[in-house]
Amino acid sequence: MKIVTVNHSDIGGGAAKAAYRLHSSFLDNNINSIFFVYIKKSNDPSVIAYSKKYSSFKSVIRNTLEMLPLRLYKKRSPIFFSAAWVRSSNIIREINRLKPDIVHLHWICGGMLRIEDLVKINAPIVWTLHDNWVFTGGCHVKWECEKYKQSCGSCPRLGSKKENDLSNRIWKRKKKAFSKIKNLSLIGPSNWILKCSKESSLLKNNYHINIPNPLDIFKFKPVDKNAARELWNLPKNKKLILYGAVDATSDINKGFKEFSEAIQKLSCENVELIVFGGPTRNESDLFGLKTHHIGFLNDEESLITLYSSADCMVVPSLQEAFGQTASEAMACQTPVVAFNHSGLKDIVDHKVNGYLAIPFDTDDLSRGIDWVLNKGTNYKELCVNARNKIVHNFNSDLIVENHIKLYREIINL
Fold first, then answer.
1. Sign of the C-alpha dihedral, residues 240, 243, 246, 247?
2. Whose C-alpha in 104, 199, 222, 403 is 20 to 30 A from the C-alpha of 130?
3. Closest CA relative to residue 152, chosen from 126, 130, 173, 178
């Protein structure tokens, strides 16, 4: 069995991380796996880029073209929206040339694949839902909108009041293309996104299954807290709250505003903050608390020691298809505080290995942070429970086994 995993890039962003970890786990289990990407950033020989002659200039051109339809919507929300209209026949040809038994799509936007070209893939398609784009008229984060259950149009993300707007036209293109794909199965990393996809007008008749994102539990494991703090030059006599994500402070979906409000309402003392995943700042204080700005982290070893150094991680995302930073932190025995919403509900168990606050109540989010730091009945038990949840539910070997079972069922259809 040959698996070709397809993603926009091999490094950078949650989808790339999840796809690469799955591919690596396949190789560890002696499964014939190729990771095909539009942009290759690593030196891994098992990762194949679309073209060795590919240039960043071409990427800029395709991205510019991809964004052209959005320029008509001056009132659109500052979130990612993809029309996926730039031709990609040559990319599909390269994928088919690998002669896969299964093509496993992950995140394919950013000018990589055109919706209509997906029908040209010569193998059954499995598609992991890393956000809402696959079943919407173009938005990656739907938030409260449920127009995807009909045919989109009058899109609140576009600031549109017209039924036949860009979102409706994209929905129609997907409807036509998806109907021509003979074998398309969907994986929801969380039960929440799986439910959304099942309820969508585009994918409700396709096969769906819940398989979480994998995590190497032998790599992501706790490091001695004092040693980790010494490594990062962090105080050993303070309670440290960790917050971070890709574009942590600029992506409104990552809840920095909600995190800010919750921190200002904290009643606990002797606390400092750690912020990673955003640009390093010069100021030393945030909301009146001493703040350690780590910036972007490019290697897992740094992440593991940073997770281990914290007493609590806050993941206040407004929406997550899964919530990888939460699973990573918990694997390192760091309890997580999050909103009781979307994919994070599958990872965090309320007052067992963390705290799930009322969505999107910053008072309760603050209470959750305070509870973990000061009022948990047994903090050490919280930490042990956190790692146990990841070990028993999200370890790579289990996730690979579930994927292979799915692939075999599809090939035998």
1. negative
2. 222
3. 173
104: nearest Cα among 129, 77, 127: 127
Q: Assign 3-class secondary structure to 321-337.
A: CCCHHHHHHHHCCCCEE
> Which residues neighbour 268 within 8 Å (Cβ) at sequence distance 6 or greater?
239, 369, 370, 373, 374
Give me the CATH number covering residue 189. 3.40.50.2000
Query: Closest by alpha carbon to 306, among 298, 294, 317, 288?
Result: 294
CA distance linking residue 404 with residue 330, whole number of Å: 26
Task: Look up residue 179 and give its amino acid.
Answer: S
Report the mean per-residue pLDDT for the chain: 93
The pLDDT of residue 212 is above 70: yes
What is the phi-psi region of residue 16: left when phi exceeds 0, alpha when psi lies from -120 to 50, beta otherwise?
A: alpha
Contact 257, 362 (CB under 8 A): no
Bond into 360 cis (ω within 30): yes
Q: Is the pTM of this model over 0.90?
A: yes
